[in-house]
User: What shape does this take?
Amino acid sequence: MVRFAWAVLAGFVLGTPAVPFGLSLSLPAPVALLAVLTGSACCLLFAVFAMERARARWQLWRAGRRGDADVAPGKDRLSGKAGVRARRVVDRYGAIGFGVIGPALFGTWGSALLGAALGVPRWRLLSWLMVGVTLWCTVMLVASDAAFDAFGFG
Assistant: This one.
């Protein structure tokens, strides 16, 4: 039970790269995958909700500071050069592409924070990020298990 808890904690902190850690704790492969996915799901929930709250507060502060109280918060959130570029990527690949590819490119935390900051709808972002994390954790599990067998670990 303690090893499972350590694997869940590693999944929360590290995300997808925690799969080899779960296997190194001598957990069976399906149990290690379940533990890391549980930790990653908690990470995604925490990061998305925290970023949405921070973004909403920032938008209100920004609107009040500029005196644009009559402008709806979030209307001008991606007007800069980098924001336009990021929005173009999300528009081109959508939440599905971002959710599946994001964990491999930006990691679990980075994908959740970036997706929420870009304004991808919460539950759509979470569901597709969970699909992506599951995919990449499974790939890491197969690769790690093969490497552990090849080198005689575990």
About this structure: The mean pLDDT is 85. The radius of gyration is 18 Å. The chain has five helices and no strands.
